[in-house]
Specification:
This protein is α+β, with helices and mostly antiparallel strands. Helices cover about 15% and strands about 35% of the residues.
């Protein structure tokens, strides 16, 4: 049986630590991007939507060395660690857009790691219907350095908070793997509130930002009416100079003559806005949703090239 390629990864729902902790295990939620490794003679790597990541992250092929002579599909996360050993999405941003092997190796000063956490196929056998606990036992036997899963206890979440980590994912021990499905068997519990957003416009900067981006105008699609593109706020903090330049290069070719947002925007926001086709997805951290459906105090975290705009939907306020 040939190794299937590509596979859409299974996704988690947002929530809290389960009330029946004995049925779950916890994994650290790594602040990276999803990637599946396919081992069958050589190694291929795909992203969440099937994009080929093989040359972009050559470290993953090296990490699969213990599987030489075997056939397997491994699910995991690409993570860039800072000098203190903490996941850094900002560092990962600097690797995301390098697609040729030579360029990736030139960034040896910004290495990435592959953190495996599930095993979907092994030596011609599909493992999708096996319980999570059994798949993890097989993964752990392969010598890929998968981090251990942990007891489902609030103290584990608190420990990740103290260490500055993103949070945890609670996974039912008896759950199968369902590709492409956002399943209730996996629950992501975050220490920091983040949201994916789509850029619908920008406002020119002033002072040291003159001639570039001052702030981005952000939107999400309505869950009940997917054609409705809702304005959810604007963000002007969290950017490095490099991030501002990268964003401007992405959105300038997308300029259009009128607002892509459904309904009007406040005059103070739209007065000197430049509008763009909503094709660039980013991520922000924020404190809460306001009553009028806006993100309060958003901070830019980076472009999410692994996400599709149509999937960025306005969730119920939590």
């Amino acid at each position: 049986m040939a190794v299937p390629y590509p596979i859409e990864p299974m996704l988690a729902i947002p929530g809290e630590i389960p009330s029946d902790p004995g049925a779950y295990a916890l994994e650290v939620k790594w602040d990276g991007i999803r990637a599946l490794a396919y081992v069958d003679g050589g190694v291929r790597v795909s992203g969440r939507h099937g994009a080929d990541f093989t040359s972009r992250y050559p470290e993953i092929s090296a990490a699969m060395a213990p599987l030489a002579g075997r056939r397997a599909v491994v699910d995991g996360e690409v993570v860039a660690f800072d000098p203190e050993g903490r996941p850094s999405f900002a560092r990962l941003q600097r690797r995301m857009h390098i697609t040729d092997p030579a360029g990736a190796h030139l960034l040896g000063r910004l290495p990435v790691s592959y953190v495996p956490f599930d095993l979907l196929h092994l030596d011609g056998h599909t493992l999708l219907d096996l319980p999570y606990a059994d798949r993890r036992a097989l993964l752990d036997s392969l010598g890929l350095g998968a981090p251990p899963y942990l007891p489902c206890e609030p103290a584990v979440l608190e420990a990740t908070r103290r260490q500055g980590l993103e949070g945890v994912v609670a996974k039912r021990l008896d759950s199968p793997y369902r590709p492409g499905r956002r399943a209730e068997w996996w629950i992501k519990v975050k220490n920091l509130r983040t949201a994916e957003v789509v850029v619908g416009g920008w406002r020119p900067g002033k002072g040291r930002r003159a001639g570039g981006v001052g702030s981005l105008l952000l939107g999400m699609y309505a869950r009940a009416s997917p054609a409705e593109f809702l304005f959810v706020g604007h963000v002007g903090t969290g950017f490095t100079d490099a991030m501002l330049g990268d964003v401007l290069r992405l959105i300038e070719p997308l300029e259009i003559g009128q607002s892509p947002f459904s309904g009007g925007l406040p005059r103070e926001i739209s007065r000197n806005a430049r509008w763009v086709r909503p094709e660039v997805v980013g991520e922000v951290a924020f404190t809460m949703w306001t009553r009028d459906g806006r993100l309060r105090t958003p901070v830019w975290r980076g472009v999410r090239a692994d996400k599709i705009p149509a999937e960025v939907r306005r969730e119920e306020q939590r």
